[in-house]
Hints:
- By secondary structure, this protein is mainly α.
- The protein is 75% helix and 0% strand.
- The termini are close together.
Amino acid sequence: MGRYVIRRLLQMVPVFVGSTFLIFLMVYALGDPVAALFGDRAPDPVTAARIRHDLYLDQPLWKQYPHYMGQIFQGNFGTAFNGRPVTELMASAFSATLRLTLVAIVMEMIAGIALGVFSGLRRGRGIDTTVLVLTLVVVSVPTFVSGYLLQYVFGVKWEWAAPTVAAGAPLGHFLLPGLVLALVSLAYVTRLTRTSIAENARADYVRTAVAKGLPRHRVITRHLLRNSLIPVVTFIGTDIGALMGGAIVTERIFNIHGVGYQLYQGILRQNSPTVVGFVTILVLVFLIANLLVDLLYAVLDPRIRYD
C-alpha cells in the first residue's frame, strides 16, 4: 500500500505540472491581461510596462511559468487587480465553498445511496419506477430553476431557511443551498446505486450468502452494498472537485462569495491572477480526491490489493 501511494503521488506531479501549465498558457500567453485590465481605454505605456514587470509578464513564457510555480510553493499566489492578495480571497472563498460542498456531499451520499438501495432491491416495482421518474425530473430541471424555486418556497414563503447566506454563516445556513447544489448529483448517485445493486443482487456470492442463512441486512450491508458502491464512490470522488468549481449558479442564487463566485468574477473582469490561483487549487482537489477514491476501492472490495 505504501509503495502504491508513493507511486501515485509521483504520477500526480506531471499531471499537476501539465494542468497548471495549460491554465497558465491559456490565461497569460493567449491573451493580454494588462490590456484587459484597462478595458476599452488605451493603457498608458509607462503604467502598462510597470504592471507587466510586476506580474513578470515582460519575461518569456519559459521563464514566467517557473517563476509562477516558485511563488506558489512559497504560498504566494500573486495579487488580484483590486490590490488584494489572492490568498486572502482564497481564505474566505474556500471556507464558504468547503462548507457548501460538505453539506452537498453528505446529502448526496446518504439520500442517494439509500434511495438507490431501496429502488434496486425492488427493481421493476412501482417504487422503483417512481424513483427513476423523480431522478429523471431532477436531472432535467436546470439548477437555476430548482434553486430559485426552493429559495422562494423554503426561504421566502415558509421562512424555514435563510434566502441568502453570508460567507461566515454557520453550517446550518448552508442546508438549503447545499440541497440545491446536490440535487443533480444526488439523482445520478441514486441511479448508479440502483443499477449496481440490481445487477449484483443476482451474483453468485449473494446467492451463497443467502444459502448460508445469513440475515438479510447482513447480506445487503456486508456483501451486496460494498461491491455495489465502487462505481458510486468513483462518481462521488470526481464530483467533489466538480461541486467546488461548478457551484457558480448556486452561489449566485444564495449570494455566497465562494470559489464559484470568485471564479465568475475573475473571468468576467479578466482578473488573471485570481483565475489561475483558484483553478490551481481546484486541480489539487481533483488529484487528491482521485487518490482517496483509489484507496477506498481496497476498503470496499477485499479482492483489490495494492502491492
